[in-house]
Amino acid sequence: MNIPSLAVSALSACALAACAQTQPAENVPAPSPAVKVTGAAQSCIPLQPLSSTAVRDDRTIDFIVSGKRGYRNTLTGSCPGLKAANAFTYETSLSQLCNTDIIYTLQNYGGTPQRGAACGLGQFVPVEFQR
């Protein structure tokens, strides 16, 4: 194979990979665990009652208030490395987290946590977790 053919093959592979990443949301499996929606989506949630978070996949984070209640946030797009890192950070000067805020994956490099990809939060949907 000559060099120009190799370059065309590489570009074709990149183009196909880009197409695969833009598949409609209906082809993406729902995150686990299943949830029951208990109210309308909200732009912001207060930080004070949150007890923990759970990264479900590269696009979904559950903000847990109690064992069975919380908010499911589907990010505005896929967040590379979020599930693998299973950790994120954010900065806010408010006592709430909003859909206009940005989270950052938290990568561990040589024992030192460092910010990774920046990702936009979506709406916060109040849910009850089905366990």
Largest sheet report = 5 strands, antiparallel
Number of domains: 1
In terms of per-residue confidence, which ranges show pLDDT below 50 for 5 or more consecutive residues? 1-24
Mean pLDDT: 82
Secondary structure tally, helices = 2
Structural class: alpha+beta
Oligomer: single chain
Main sheet: strand order: 1-10-5-4-3
User: Portion of residues in helices?
Assistant: 10-25%
Topology, number of strands? 10
> Termini separation (Å)?
54 Å
Task: Based on Cα principal axes, name the global outline.
Answer: globular
Helix/strand order: HEEEEEHEEEEE
> Over the alpha carbons, how many angstroms does the gyration radius reach?
18 Å
Beta-strand content estimate: 35-45%
Write the layout of secondary structure elements.
Blueprint: H1 3-21, E1 35-37, E2 44-46, E3 52-57, E4 60-64, E5 69-74, H2 82-85, E6 88-90, E7 96-98, E8 102-109, E9 112-120, E10 124-129
